[in-house]
Each structure stands twice: as structure tokens, then as C-alpha cells.
Design goal:
The complex is a heterodimer of chains A (502) and B (218).
Chain A (H helix, E strand, L loop, with lengths): L1 H13 L2 H19 L5 H8 L8 H26 L10 H10 L3 H35 L3 H18 L4 H15 L2 E2 L6 E2 L13 H17 L20 H23 L5 H15 L12 H16 L1 H7 L5 H12 L7 H5 L1 H22 L3 H7 L4 H20 L2 H19 L4 H24 L6 H4 L1 H22 L13
Helix pairs in contact in A: 1-16, 2-4, 2-16, 3-4, 3-9, 3-14, 4-5, 4-6, 4-12, 4-14, 4-16, 5-6, 5-12, 6-10, 6-12, 6-13, 6-16, 7-8, 7-20, 7-22, 8-20, 9-18, 9-19, 9-20, 10-11, 10-12, 11-12, 14-20, 18-19
Chain B lengths: L3 H10 L6 H20 L15 H23 L9 H13 L1 H6 L1 H5 L7 H20 L5 H33 L8 H22 L11
The chains are: A mainly alpha (502), B mainly alpha (218).
Chain lengths: 502, 218
């Protein structure tokens, strides 16, 4: 059994004291930001990227991954107890979770959320491990044309699943691609669009864009909203769910895990969409749909399992194909490149300790979350009393020092501020910044593969359609765009994901 | 409750621009694309069937321009929500503060000689800080505090961190950033910023081993 052997190797990497500690820090920070509304995993990972410089790459990625799935746990706590989703992936949990808390069943709701997340985490860990090898084998057969088409498909998924106008989402991808061209040309080394400004010669830093558009823009917008955090202490009595609760939620956990795993792998998916889809699905197949929204335990179990499963399976395309399926994974690409690792199929063969260590750490991290989360509920809730006026200067200075320390370049900090108000403008005019970040990350890869494919085909662009794998990928992309555009042409676009944010 | 700049135009153009967020957002993209085309105009294009350095940027820029026009057309042809408050003033407020740095750097050599006996880079940083802070407070009359002081604090950190060191730069920047909200409580702010500065001064150079200079070079 190769899988068992590989996982055993992974565990031997993940249980070194340093990696265990980093995993613990990651999940604690993740839970913390999951609890606090107004700061999400995107902004946090962007903020902490520079800090991981001094760490070993395996440890750095273990910590950053812990932040992402830890945030899924933390978000549920505040959703249930005080009806404030700390994370957008926990928005649906408020519907039934808070109702349960009002009925004095906050304990079982929290417990089932944690247990569901843990089961989902275990399952998706195995799934990542099992799918890793075959997908890597497939990826090694890919030529430049296939890679280019795969990236087009990934971006199309991101566009179709983004909220709001598809046209605007495509425009954002294009803006990201354009921004990624700044700097020196990959082949000739000629400086492009940099106006001989030395700070731009190496291109715009990935951390700079992510921090500005997500971190800074988020602060600027949060400051405009009046602060109204009401802490309603819900008494937590009796953590253990009853046997009936278990029976009711077991199916929901299984379905949520399955749905979440699939949506996590798909490009453009991620924890938020998974949670919404799982809740809707559970309500549709339920024999008593009227119970939903009034404290149905399935309504907590399904989305909480789904968001955790999706958070973990979204690592699959990143680790095997080297293509980030959502904005958080795009940040992971940034983290890997900072440490000189090129994400893609070669990671598994060249850095097996990174691949399997990261997978094993996810399981360990999930175990830690179950153990630490329930006893610490009180601590997390009291953290909500920290007012935003104290919180935002801390975030700001962390970002500024962090980005400055990457290259010791003061200009980078100013660029973050510039991308801050660019992000502010984009959000205010209803543009989603997440597709832009994906375009920005994939830009250099796409350009490189496009150029190579065109060279190999001697300038014949039909190569993308005539090569079978590439042609199929592009056909799927075209169908997706058509399916997404059809309802819009009829004038009533399906707004299933209207509240989702990746 | 409409936008200041937009408010002046809103009644006149109300009938033409039916979805202002789409229209202005699309227009901004068209301008960005036009600027990118200008910026990449010196780059060689296709050489035979091989891409030149300029091919991809121009491809993306034309794509963005077409999409931007598309979004603008949507803004003219379909109804949408009105502009959100501060869309223009917030963005331009931040931009003005960054642009204010250009003359400071242009005249840096002259500004550095203003106070003899003090190192030139420290003088430049001090002048830059004062200019940015004064400008930010002046702009509060027309723009929201959030983008103004977040931008100002970052700029001040950036221009002060080399000559003045991490501790002074962080503290000044933190105190300025606290102005981003109206509910400033000065005693609390000054104390909290001191705690944060101390935390950063320990975490980054010692905890994370980053080569940061803590105090000014004298």
C-alpha cells in the first residue's frame, strides 16, 4: 500500500516538534480570525506571508494551511453564539445555528459543527492523498497547450462562480493578467511598462497586490460602517449532542462532506460556495424543510462539514497541477514561490516531504481544532469585545512592516496603499477583486505556456483546439460560459451564489 | 446622500447613465487599458510566429479595453444601484496623498539642506511626514477618513522607516492611523500604539530574525 506508506512518511514529517508548533499556531490564528468579523483568511495569509520567510518551507505551508481551515472552525462559533458570521463561509450557519442557541442548544450546535468539520477533515485528507498520485501522473503528460487551456478553464470557473456580473468578473481577470505583465519579460528580460522605475523592474509583488486589495481595502471599508457589535452571552450547557441529534446529522455530515469535497476541487470553488450549496441541498432533500431556519441540526452539520472539506480539497489542484482554484490558494502559490518552490506536479517527486507532510498536518490540525475549540469557546467570544478601533492599527502596522521586510523596499509599502484604494474603488463599483488576484497569479504562467505552445505549433493558434486534451478543456470552458450567460440573456440570472465571496 | 463629485453631476446625467457603478467602473478600466497601451508602446511585438515582449501586454490591454467598454455599455443600457458614498472622494483622497510624494522626492536634495546639522534623509522624512499629515487633515473636509489616514499612515511608515528606524516609524504611523476613525480616544490610543510598537520591535527583529534597524542612525 503506497498510500499508507506515503501517509506514514507524511506523519513523520508533520510530528516534528517545530511543525507541530507551527500547525498549532496556524489553527489558533485561523480560529482567531475566523471569530473576528472584518478580517478574513485572505487578508491574514497575505499579512503573514512575509513572516514565513525565516521558516522552513514545509513549516510555513503547514502554518498557512492551518489558518485557512482553522478559520472555517472559528467562523462557526460566532455564527452560532451571537449570530455574527466571523467568516463568509459561515453565513448559512447562522440560520439554524443561532436558532439552536436561542433554544438553549448552543452546546450541541457547537459540538456538531466541530464533529462534522472533523469528520469532513479526515475524509478530505484521505481524498487529497488518494487523488494526489493519479492527478500528478496526468499533469506530467500535459504540454504547454494543455496547460494554457487548463488555466483558461480554471479562470472561467472562477468567473462563472463569482458573484454578480460575469462581464465584470472577466474584466477583472484581464486586469490581473495585464498587471502581471509589469516588470521584465520572461524570455528577453526586457523591462515592460515599468517607466525605468527601479522598484517596478522586478514586477509588482504578489504580496503587495493581495495585501492591498484584500487587507487594506477591507479596513478602509470597515471603517465606514458604524460599529455595532452586541455581545449576547448565550449560556452553554451540556456540550454533548443527544443520540437523536447524531442520527439526524450523520447523513447531513456525509452529504456535506461529499459536496464540499467536489466543490473544493473545482476551480473557482471553495469553502463559501460549498457551505451554501450543502445547506440548500440539505433543505431540498429534507422531509421537513420547514424546520430549516428554526434550529434544525442538519442545517448546522451540513454547511460546516462542507466548508471544511472544501477548504482542504482545494489544495488538490494546487499541489498536483500547480493551478490555484481560488484566491486563498493563489496566496499559497505566492508562499511557495517565496520559498523557491514551483507549484506543480514536480512538487510530489522533488519535495515529497512538503507534499505528504502538508497532507498529514491537515489531519493533525483538525484534531487540534476539535480538542482546543470547544473548551476555548468562552475565550473566543470574549475576544469579540476588542473594538475595531484598536484592531485596525495592529493589522495596518503588521502589513506595513511585513511587506517592507520582504525586499527592504519602502516603495513596496506605498504600493500596498495604492492597491488599497484601487481595491476600495473596485469593491465600491461592484467589481470582485478575487478573480483579479487569480489572473495576476496565473498571468506569467499563462503567458509562458501560450508563447511556448505557439512556438511549438509554429504560430498556428488552432493547436489549442486540435490537441485532444486541450480541445476538451477549452470546450468545457466554452460550455460553462454559455450556460452562465444564457439566463443573463433571458434577463434573470440565477442568483444562487449572490451572497458568496471567495 | 450621493457622492460629492458624483452628486454635482448626478441630476444632469441621470437619464443617460442608468447604472452608474457599471459606467464609472468600466470607464476606469478603459483608462487603465489606454494607459497600459501607452506604457507598452515601446515594446517590440510579434517576430515571425514568436511572441515579442510587447505581444502579451497589448493583447491583455486591448482585451481589457473591450471589456471596459462592454461594462460601460451595460451601465448605459440597464438600470443599476446608485453610486455608493465616497466612491470617488475616497479613492482620489488616497491618490492625492501618494502623488504628493512626487515633488518631495523631486526636491529631496534641496529639502535635505533645510536644517543644517541634521542628516539630510531625516529632514526629508520629517518634511514628508508633515506634508502628508497636514494634507490628510485638510482632505477630511472632502474625503472619508478611512482611505485618507490608512494611506497616510502607510506612506509615513515607508518614508520614515529607513532614516528613523522601526520604532519611531511604527509609533508615528500607528498614531496617525488611529485618526482613520472619528472615535479617537487619545490616552487610550497613545498607550495602545506604544504597546503595539513594543510588540513589533520584539517580534520582527528578534522573533522572526528579520534584519530591521530599530533606531535612527546618528
Amino acid at each position: 500500500m503506497d498510500l499508507v506508506q506515503n501517509l506514514a512518511f507524511g506523519f513523520s514529517v508533520a510530528v516534528t516538534p517545530m511543525n507541530l508548533l507551527l500547525c498549532l499556531i496556524g489553527v489558533l490564528v485561523g480560529t482567531l480570525i475566523g471569530v473576528l468579523p472584518g478580517i478574513g483568511p485572505l487578508a491574514t495569509i497575505a499579512m503573514l506571508l512575509p513572516i514565513t520567510f525565516g521558516l522552513h518551507p514545509v513549516g510555513a505551508l503547514i502554518m498557512l494551511a492551518g489558518i485557512y481551515y482553522g478559520a472555517q472552525y472559528g467562523g462557526s462559533t460566532t455564527s452560532i453564539l451571537i449570530n455574527i458570521p466571523g467568516e463568509s463561509s459561515s453565513v448559512v450557519t447562522t440560520l439554524d445555528g443561532h436558532q439552536m442557541a436561542k433554544q438553549g442548544r448552543a452546546g450541541p450546535a457547537l459540538a456538531i459543527a466541530a464533529i462534522g468539520s472533523f469528520i469532513a477533515g479526515c475524509f478530505s485528507t484521505v481524498l487529497v492523498a488518494a487523488l494526489g498520485v493519479p492527478l500528478t501522473g496526468l499533469a506530467l503528460k500535459f504540454g504547454p497547450a494543455e496547460y494554457f487551456s487548463l488555466m483558461v478553464l480554471g479562470l472561467v470557473f472562477a468567473v462563472v462562480l463569482a458573484k454578480g456580473s460575469i462581464l465584470k468578473a472577466i474584466a477583472m481577470v484581464m486586469l490581473g493578467l495585464l498587471l502581471s505583465c509589469v516588470g521584465s519579460d520572461i524570455e528577453t528580460g526586457q523591462s515592460r511598462m515599468s517607466f525605468d522605475i527601479p522598484e517596478l523592474a522586478d514586477g509588482i509583488g504578489f504580496v503587495v497586490v493581495a495585501m492591498g486589495v484584500f487587507g487594506y481595502a477591507e479596513i478602509m471599508r470597515n471603517l465606514e460602517q458604524e460599529e455595532s457589535r452586541e455581545i449576547v452571552e448565550a449560556k452553554i450547557t451540556g456540550l454533548m449532542p443527544t443520540l437523536a441529534d447524531f442520527k439526524a446529522s450523520l447523513g447531513a455530515i456525509a452529504r456535506g462532506t461529499g459536496l464540499g469535497s467536489v466543490l473544493g476541487i473545482l476551480p473557482g470553488g471553495g469553502a463559501v460556495i460549498a457551505a451554501f450549496a450543502a445547506y440548500t441541498f440539505e433543505k431540498k432533500i429534507s422531509k421537513e424543510p420547514h424546520r430549516f431556519g428554526r434550529g434544525a441540526i442538519e442545517g448546522v452539520a451540513a454547511p460546516e462539514s462542507a466548508n471544511n472539506a472544501a477548504a482542504q480539497t482545494s489544495f488538490i489542484p494546487l499541489l498536483t497541477l500547480g493551478i490555484p482554484p481560488n484566491a486563498v490558494m493563489a496566496l499559497m502559490v505566492g508562499a511557495m514561490t517565496i520559498h523557491g518552490i514551483v507549484p506543480g506536479p514536480q512538487v510530489m517527486t522533488k519535495q515529497p516531504e512538503l507534499f505528504w507532510g502538508l497532507i498529514a498536518s491537515m489531519w493533525i490540525g483538525n484534531l487540534m481544532l476539535v480538542v482546543i475549540n470547544l473548551p476555548l469557546v468562552g475565550v473566543w467570544v470574549s475576544l469579540l469585545r476588542v473594538p475595531y478601533r484598536l484592531l485596525f492599527p495592529a493589522i495596518l502596522i503588521f502589513c506595513a512592516i511585513g511587506v517592507y521586510s520582504i525586499n527592504n523596499a519602502p516603495a513596496d509599502a506605498i504600493m500596498v496603499a495604492v492597491f488599497g484604494f484601487i481595491g476600495y474603488w473596485l469593491v465600491k463599483t461592484d467589481f470582485e477583486p478575487a478573480p483579479m488576484l487569480l489572473g495576476f497569479v496565473l498571468g506569467p504562467l499563462m503567458e509562458e505556456n501560450l508563447r511556448r505552445a505557439m512556438l511549438i505549433a509554429r504560430g498556428d493558434p488552432t493547436t489549442f483546439v486540435t490537441r485532444p486534451i486541450s480541445g476538451v478543456l477549452l470546450a468545457i470552458a466554452a460550455v460553462l460560459v454559455l450556460v452562465a450567460l444564457l439566463p443573463m440573456i433571458r434577463g434573470k440570472r440565477d442568483e444562487v451564489f449572490v451572497e458568496s465571496e471567495t | 446622500m450621493s457622492e460629492r463629485q458624483g452628486g454635482a453631476q448626478a441630476p444632469a446625467t441621470h437619464n443617460v447613465i442608468r447604472s452608474p457603478r457599471d459606467f464609472w467602473g468600466g470607464l476606469a478600466l478603459v483608462l487603465v487599458a489606454a494607459f497600459a497601451l501607452y506604457a507598452s508602446s515601446d515594446l517590440p511585438g510579434m517576430r515571425g510566429f514568436a511572441f515579442g515582449p510587447g505581444t502579451a501586454p497589448r493583447l491583455f490591454a486591448y482585451g481589457l479595453m473591450a471589456l471596459g467598454f462592454g461594462v460601460m455599455m451595460v451601465g448605459l443600457l440597464s438600470d443599476g444601484p446608485p453610486m455608493e458614498d465616497f466612491t470617488f472622494s475616497g479613492t482620489f483622497g488616497g491618490a492625492v496623498l501618494v502623488l504628493a510624494l512626487i515633488p518631495i522626492y523631486f526636491f529631496a536634495a534641496r529639502i535635505g539642506k533645510l536644517a543644517p546639522g541634521i542628516a539630510a534623509d531625516i529632514v526629508v522624512a520629517a518634511v514628508g511626514t508633515i506634508v502628508v499629515v497636514v494634507l490628510a487633515f485638510l482632505l477630511t473636509h472632502v474625503a472619508p477618513r478611512g482611505p485618507l489616514f490608512i494611506t497616510a499612515a502607510t506612506i509615513i511608515f515607508a518614508i520614515a522607516v529607513r532614516p528613523l528606524g522601526l520604532i519611531i516609524a511604527s509609533y508615528v504611523s500607528l498614531v496617525i492611523s488611529a485618526n482613520a476613525t472619528r472615535e479617537v480616544r487619545w490616552v487610550e490610543t497613545l498607550a495602545w500604539c506604544a504597546i503595539l510598537t513594543a510588540f513589533c520591535a520584539v517580534l520582527f527583529p528578534y522573533g522572526l530574525n528579520l534584519p530591521l534597524q530599530l533606531w535612527p542612525r546618528f
